[in-house]
Amino acid sequence: MNYILTKLTGYLRLMRPANILTAITDILAGIAITGFLASGMPDVQAALQIVCLAIATIGLYGGGVVFNDVFDASLDKTERPERPIPSGVISRTEAVVLGVYLLLLGILAAFTISEQSGFIAIATALAALVYNRWGKHHALAGPLNMGLCRGLNLLLGMSILPDGPLRHGWLGLVPVLYIAAITMISRDEVHGGKTRTLRIAALGYGVVYTIIFVHAGWNHRILEVLPFLLIFVWLIMQPLVRAMKDPIGPNIGKAVKGGIIGLIAMNAAWTAAFAPFPYALLVLAFLPLSMLLSRAFAVT
Predict the structure, then answer these.
(1) How many domains does the chain have?
(2) 3 lies in some domain
(3) pTM for the whole thing?
(4) What is the CATH number of the domain that holds 267?
(5) End-to-end alpha-carbon separation of the chain, Å?
(6) Tell me, what DSSP letter sits at residue 171?
(7) N or C: which end of the chain has fewer CB within 10 A?
């Protein structure tokens, strides 16, 4: 029994449950941006489509982070020996099998929505594998590659409507910029870093929440968006400012964690800008659960 529990915990640690919740909120934000929820939930069929897209992103994100640990297994023996693969809890082969299953689940679930959704899922899976194998080793291409995975995830949510990605696809550049900033500073969370990198990330963050605020104004929903936007800014900037003052590894790690968890508040703000207020509250409800899971399972 202890063996089974240890294995299951190891698999969950590989999948980063707290992060997966942020990916689900990407989907919900993408759906909201298309106007799909503007008049409330259309019918049971619509609810099933949302569930299928949520399953798709669980598979894609889960598979992506599993392969992150697969490709980093040798390095983790030195830098993060507590992770499931270097600690021997999960073998590399078992992790590969899990990663493949999850990516296939994500792609198949996306194809139940449409061919467009399926091809976006394939592109997401390929972008994740490219990042894990090659992208992360490049100073500029790596962060952009990681950001592309999140941008495609937002597009996956938009694909609930056939013309969703075409009409609103440019907004996928926002998570590309945001995640690129997080990825850039995450490289220093083991050994510490430089204040300059953190300041560049802060500038990127500023562009992101400015774009959200401008969209709220265009849609005449500033009052609805502002509470979620303030939560977002607080979650990401508080640990980042602390890291700027003392850029040691642990502080940078907290800044990265805040940036990842803050995605939920960002997606709630997007939802508030395009859908009725209760849907934004529903998205924000993922935040305490993600924070709780982040105490039990590593985020980075």
Answers:
(1) 1
(2) no
(3) 0.94
(4) 1.10.357.140
(5) 28
(6) G
(7) N
List pLDDT tens digits, range 168-204: 999 999 999 999 999 888 876 666 677 888 899 999 9
**Tokens, residue 80:** 């993060």
Q: Does any domain span residue 150? A: yes
Strands (E), the chain: none
Residue 141 lies in a domain: yes
At residue 293, the 3 state secondary structure works out as: helix
Domain of 259 in residue numbering reads as 9-296
Residues 15-46 have pLDDT tens digits of 999 999 999 999 999 999 999 998 777 688 88
* pLDDT score of 44: 85
Q: Are 123 and 63 in contact (CB under 8 A)?
A: no
| Tokens coding 259 | 């940036």
Q: What are the angstrom distances between the C-alpha of 182 and each of 128, 169, 186, 193, 228?
A: 16, 22, 6, 13, 20
Q: State the maximum Cα–Cα separation within the chain, in Å, rounded to a whole number.
A: 56
Name the nearest CA neighbour of 204 among 152, 255, 158.
255
Residue 246 is predicted with a pLDDT of: 87
The answer for residues whose C-beta is within 8 angstroms of residue 89's C-beta and 6 or more apart is 6, 7, 9, 10, 13
Q: Which helix (H) or strand (E) holds 243?
A: helix 222-245
Residue with token string 């993600």: 290
